[in-house]
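Morning F.,

Quick status update on the modeling queue. The single chain you submitted on Monday has been processed. Sequence for confirmation:
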Amino acid sequence: MPHANIDVRPINPTIGAVIEGLDLTREMDEGTYADVRQALLDHLVIVIPEQHITPAQQLTFARRFGEVEPPHPVFGRVPEQPEVTVIEQDGSADAPYNDIWHTDVTFREKPAMASILHAQVLPVGGGGDTLWSSLQAPYEALSPKIRELIEDMTATHDYYMSFGEMVLAGPGGIEKLAADIIDLPPQTHPVVRTHPETGRKGLFVNRTFTKHINGLGYVERDYLLRMLCEFAEHPNYQMRHTWTKHDLVMWDNRATMHIATSNFISHRKMHRITVLGDQPYH
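C-alpha coordinates below.
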Protein backbone atom coordinates (compact mmCIF):
# COMPACT_ATOMS: atom_id res chain seq x y z
CA MET A 1 0.00 0.00 0.00
CA PRO A 2 1.21 3.59 -0.60
CA HIS A 3 2.69 5.61 2.27
CA ALA A 4 2.56 9.40 2.48
CA ASN A 5 5.61 9.98 4.67
CA ILE A 6 8.15 7.26 3.79
CA ASP A 7 9.27 5.18 0.81
CA VAL A 8 8.76 1.43 1.29
CA ARG A 9 10.50 -0.98 -1.08
CA PRO A 10 9.55 -4.67 -0.67
CA ILE A 11 12.48 -7.10 -0.58
CA ASN A 12 10.35 -9.98 -1.86
CA PRO A 13 6.62 -10.75 -2.00
CA THR A 14 6.69 -12.84 1.18
CA ILE A 15 8.73 -10.95 3.76
CA GLY A 16 10.77 -7.82 4.24
CA ALA A 17 10.94 -4.21 3.08
CA VAL A 18 13.48 -1.38 3.06
CA ILE A 19 12.28 1.99 4.33
CA GLU A 20 13.85 5.16 2.94
CA GLY A 21 13.21 8.74 3.98
CA LEU A 22 13.31 8.18 7.74
CA ASP A 23 15.71 9.90 10.16
CA LEU A 24 15.36 8.50 13.68
CA THR A 25 17.50 11.24 15.21
CA ARG A 26 14.28 13.25 14.89
CA GLU A 27 11.02 12.44 16.62
CA MET A 28 8.45 10.79 14.35
CA ASP A 29 5.17 12.58 13.83
CA GLU A 30 1.95 10.57 14.05
CA GLY A 31 1.58 10.16 10.29
CA THR A 32 5.08 8.80 9.88
CA TYR A 33 4.66 6.48 12.85
CA ALA A 34 1.42 5.13 11.36
CA ASP A 35 3.18 4.48 8.04
CA VAL A 36 6.08 2.67 9.72
CA ARG A 37 3.75 0.51 11.80
CA GLN A 38 1.70 -0.37 8.72
CA ALA A 39 4.88 -1.28 6.81
CA LEU A 40 5.81 -3.61 9.69
CA LEU A 41 2.39 -5.29 9.58
CA ASP A 42 2.50 -5.61 5.80
CA HIS A 43 6.08 -6.90 5.44
CA LEU A 44 6.93 -8.31 8.93
CA VAL A 45 10.56 -7.10 8.72
CA ILE A 46 11.60 -3.50 7.99
CA VAL A 47 15.17 -2.42 7.24
CA ILE A 48 15.98 1.24 7.93
CA PRO A 49 19.51 2.05 6.68
CA GLU A 50 21.94 4.72 7.88
CA GLN A 51 20.51 5.46 11.30
CA HIS A 52 23.22 7.30 13.26
CA ILE A 53 21.39 7.11 16.58
CA THR A 54 22.31 6.71 20.22
CA PRO A 55 20.94 3.94 22.46
CA ALA A 56 18.61 6.54 23.98
CA GLN A 57 17.24 7.42 20.53
CA GLN A 58 16.78 3.74 19.69
CA LEU A 59 14.83 3.43 22.94
CA THR A 60 12.67 6.44 22.05
CA PHE A 61 11.84 4.82 18.70
CA ALA A 62 11.01 1.49 20.36
CA ARG A 63 8.68 3.10 22.90
CA ARG A 64 6.46 4.45 20.11
CA PHE A 65 5.37 0.84 19.57
CA GLY A 66 4.69 -0.07 23.19
CA GLU A 67 6.26 -0.82 26.54
CA VAL A 68 9.85 -2.03 26.38
CA GLU A 69 10.86 -5.35 27.97
CA PRO A 70 13.00 -5.37 31.11
CA PRO A 71 16.71 -6.17 30.77
CA HIS A 72 17.46 -9.58 29.24
CA PRO A 73 18.15 -12.29 31.86
CA VAL A 74 21.33 -13.54 30.14
CA PHE A 75 22.95 -11.01 27.78
CA GLY A 76 24.77 -7.80 28.71
CA ARG A 77 23.24 -4.35 28.49
CA VAL A 78 24.14 -0.74 27.80
CA PRO A 79 24.91 0.67 31.29
CA GLU A 80 23.14 4.00 30.82
CA GLN A 81 20.20 2.36 29.00
CA PRO A 82 19.73 -1.09 30.60
CA GLU A 83 16.70 -1.86 28.41
CA VAL A 84 19.13 -1.99 25.46
CA THR A 85 20.63 -5.48 25.25
CA VAL A 86 24.15 -5.90 23.87
CA ILE A 87 24.47 -8.88 21.51
CA GLU A 88 28.20 -9.27 21.07
CA GLN A 89 30.45 -12.05 19.73
CA ASP A 90 34.15 -12.32 18.97
CA GLY A 91 33.82 -14.98 16.26
CA SER A 92 35.27 -17.79 18.38
CA ALA A 93 33.64 -21.21 18.24
CA ASP A 94 32.66 -21.19 21.94
CA ALA A 95 31.09 -17.71 21.96
CA PRO A 96 27.37 -17.70 22.83
CA TYR A 97 25.43 -17.17 19.66
CA ASN A 98 21.86 -17.60 18.43
CA ASP A 99 22.69 -19.40 15.21
CA ILE A 100 19.59 -21.58 15.46
CA TRP A 101 16.21 -20.49 14.13
CA HIS A 102 14.17 -18.87 16.89
CA THR A 103 11.47 -16.37 17.78
CA ASP A 104 12.57 -14.06 20.57
CA VAL A 105 11.67 -14.87 24.19
CA THR A 106 8.81 -17.29 23.52
CA PHE A 107 9.70 -18.67 26.97
CA ARG A 108 7.80 -15.68 28.41
CA GLU A 109 4.06 -15.70 29.08
CA LYS A 110 3.80 -12.65 26.82
CA PRO A 111 6.58 -12.90 24.19
CA ALA A 112 7.86 -9.78 22.48
CA MET A 113 5.65 -7.89 20.05
CA ALA A 114 8.72 -6.75 18.11
CA SER A 115 12.50 -6.66 18.25
CA ILE A 116 14.73 -3.83 17.06
CA LEU A 117 18.40 -4.41 16.21
CA HIS A 118 20.92 -1.62 15.53
CA ALA A 119 24.32 -2.50 14.03
CA GLN A 120 27.28 -1.17 16.04
CA VAL A 121 30.34 -3.19 14.99
CA LEU A 122 30.50 -5.55 12.01
CA PRO A 123 33.00 -8.35 11.37
CA VAL A 124 36.08 -7.50 9.36
CA GLY A 125 35.90 -9.45 6.12
CA GLY A 126 32.13 -9.90 6.20
CA GLY A 127 29.79 -12.52 7.56
CA GLY A 128 27.25 -12.31 10.34
CA ASP A 129 24.17 -11.89 8.13
CA THR A 130 20.71 -12.32 9.66
CA LEU A 131 17.88 -14.25 8.03
CA TRP A 132 14.17 -13.98 8.82
CA SER A 133 11.39 -16.36 7.90
CA SER A 134 7.67 -15.63 7.84
CA LEU A 135 5.61 -17.92 10.03
CA GLN A 136 2.38 -16.96 8.27
CA ALA A 137 3.28 -17.94 4.71
CA PRO A 138 4.35 -21.51 5.62
CA TYR A 139 1.19 -22.03 7.69
CA GLU A 140 -0.89 -20.99 4.68
CA ALA A 141 1.13 -23.36 2.46
CA LEU A 142 0.47 -26.40 4.64
CA SER A 143 -2.00 -28.92 3.29
CA PRO A 144 -5.55 -28.51 4.66
CA LYS A 145 -5.30 -31.81 6.55
CA ILE A 146 -2.17 -30.72 8.42
CA ARG A 147 -3.68 -27.31 9.19
CA GLU A 148 -6.73 -29.08 10.60
CA LEU A 149 -4.52 -31.43 12.65
CA ILE A 150 -2.56 -28.66 14.40
CA GLU A 151 -5.34 -26.06 14.60
CA ASP A 152 -6.06 -26.43 18.33
CA MET A 153 -2.73 -27.84 19.51
CA THR A 154 -0.49 -26.19 22.09
CA ALA A 155 3.25 -26.45 22.75
CA THR A 156 5.54 -25.96 25.75
CA HIS A 157 8.26 -23.29 25.47
CA ASP A 158 11.17 -23.45 27.90
CA TYR A 159 13.91 -20.91 28.84
CA TYR A 160 16.19 -23.74 29.98
CA MET A 161 16.41 -25.28 26.50
CA SER A 162 18.52 -22.46 25.12
CA PHE A 163 20.06 -20.71 28.11
CA GLY A 164 20.45 -23.42 30.76
CA GLU A 165 23.96 -24.52 29.85
CA MET A 166 25.13 -20.93 29.30
CA VAL A 167 23.84 -19.74 32.68
CA LEU A 168 25.30 -22.76 34.50
CA ALA A 169 28.74 -21.93 33.09
CA GLY A 170 28.51 -18.26 34.03
CA PRO A 171 28.65 -16.23 37.25
CA GLY A 172 26.37 -17.62 39.94
CA GLY A 173 26.02 -20.92 38.13
CA ILE A 174 23.31 -23.19 39.44
CA GLU A 175 21.98 -20.58 41.90
CA LYS A 176 21.30 -18.09 39.11
CA LEU A 177 19.78 -20.78 36.90
CA ALA A 178 17.46 -21.88 39.73
CA ALA A 179 16.34 -18.27 40.24
CA ASP A 180 15.81 -17.80 36.50
CA ILE A 181 13.70 -20.94 36.23
CA ILE A 182 11.50 -19.72 39.10
CA ASP A 183 11.11 -16.34 37.41
CA LEU A 184 10.69 -17.84 33.93
CA PRO A 185 8.81 -21.16 34.21
CA PRO A 186 7.83 -23.11 31.06
CA GLN A 187 4.94 -21.55 29.13
CA THR A 188 2.17 -23.02 27.00
CA HIS A 189 1.41 -21.29 23.68
CA PRO A 190 -0.78 -22.25 20.71
CA VAL A 191 0.95 -24.00 17.81
CA VAL A 192 -1.09 -21.78 15.47
CA ARG A 193 -1.16 -18.13 16.51
CA THR A 194 -3.66 -15.49 15.39
CA HIS A 195 -2.03 -12.11 14.80
CA PRO A 196 -3.74 -9.64 17.17
CA GLU A 197 -3.66 -6.75 14.67
CA THR A 198 -4.17 -8.35 11.27
CA GLY A 199 -6.04 -11.54 12.20
CA ARG A 200 -3.74 -13.56 9.95
CA LYS A 201 -2.79 -17.01 11.25
CA GLY A 202 0.74 -18.37 11.47
CA LEU A 203 2.82 -21.08 13.07
CA PHE A 204 4.24 -20.32 16.51
CA VAL A 205 6.96 -22.91 17.12
CA ASN A 206 10.74 -22.71 16.88
CA ARG A 207 13.77 -24.92 17.49
CA THR A 208 15.33 -22.84 20.25
CA PHE A 209 12.57 -22.55 22.85
CA THR A 210 9.76 -24.96 21.84
CA LYS A 211 10.33 -28.04 23.98
CA HIS A 212 7.49 -30.20 22.67
CA ILE A 213 3.95 -30.24 21.31
CA ASN A 214 1.49 -31.13 24.04
CA GLY A 215 -0.94 -34.05 24.08
CA LEU A 216 1.09 -36.38 21.85
CA GLY A 217 3.41 -39.30 22.48
CA TYR A 218 7.18 -38.77 22.47
CA VAL A 219 7.73 -39.97 18.91
CA GLU A 220 4.69 -38.17 17.48
CA ARG A 221 5.44 -34.84 19.11
CA ASP A 222 9.10 -34.90 18.10
CA TYR A 223 8.36 -35.71 14.48
CA LEU A 224 5.54 -33.18 14.18
CA LEU A 225 7.55 -30.36 15.76
CA ARG A 226 10.54 -31.14 13.54
CA MET A 227 8.35 -31.18 10.43
CA LEU A 228 6.73 -27.83 11.23
CA CYS A 229 10.09 -26.21 11.95
CA GLU A 230 11.65 -27.57 8.76
CA PHE A 231 8.66 -26.42 6.74
CA ALA A 232 8.84 -22.91 8.20
CA GLU A 233 12.60 -22.72 7.52
CA HIS A 234 12.23 -23.26 3.78
CA PRO A 235 13.94 -20.56 1.65
CA ASN A 236 10.61 -19.77 -0.04
CA TYR A 237 9.55 -17.87 3.08
CA GLN A 238 12.83 -16.10 3.89
CA MET A 239 14.77 -12.90 3.47
CA ARG A 240 18.48 -12.38 4.20
CA HIS A 241 20.08 -9.12 5.33
CA THR A 242 23.77 -8.32 4.93
CA TRP A 243 24.44 -5.66 7.52
CA THR A 244 25.94 -2.23 7.01
CA LYS A 245 27.02 -0.27 10.07
CA HIS A 246 24.15 1.83 11.51
CA ASP A 247 21.45 -0.29 9.84
CA LEU A 248 18.37 -0.61 12.04
CA VAL A 249 16.09 -3.59 11.51
CA MET A 250 12.74 -4.13 13.21
CA TRP A 251 10.68 -7.30 12.94
CA ASP A 252 7.26 -8.50 14.02
CA ASN A 253 8.10 -11.16 16.59
CA ARG A 254 4.51 -12.45 16.51
CA ALA A 255 4.83 -13.70 12.94
CA THR A 256 8.51 -14.39 12.21
CA MET A 257 11.54 -16.31 13.33
CA HIS A 258 15.18 -15.52 12.59
CA ILE A 259 18.73 -16.82 12.67
CA ALA A 260 22.07 -15.01 12.86
CA THR A 261 24.85 -16.64 10.87
CA SER A 262 28.13 -17.31 12.68
CA ASN A 263 30.38 -17.31 9.61
CA PHE A 264 32.85 -14.68 10.84
CA ILE A 265 36.05 -14.60 12.85
CA SER A 266 36.11 -11.09 14.31
CA HIS A 267 34.04 -8.72 16.41
CA ARG A 268 30.28 -8.30 15.87
CA LYS A 269 28.17 -6.10 18.14
CA MET A 270 24.48 -5.19 18.01
CA HIS A 271 22.12 -3.24 20.25
CA ARG A 272 18.73 -4.92 20.66
CA ILE A 273 15.49 -3.74 22.20
CA THR A 274 12.36 -5.85 22.47
CA VAL A 275 8.86 -4.40 22.78
CA LEU A 276 6.43 -6.17 25.08
CA GLY A 277 3.71 -8.20 23.41
CA ASP A 278 0.48 -9.86 24.42
CA GLN A 279 -0.32 -13.44 25.34
CA PRO A 280 -0.49 -15.58 22.16
CA TYR A 281 -3.93 -16.90 21.28
CA HIS A 282 -5.68 -18.78 18.51
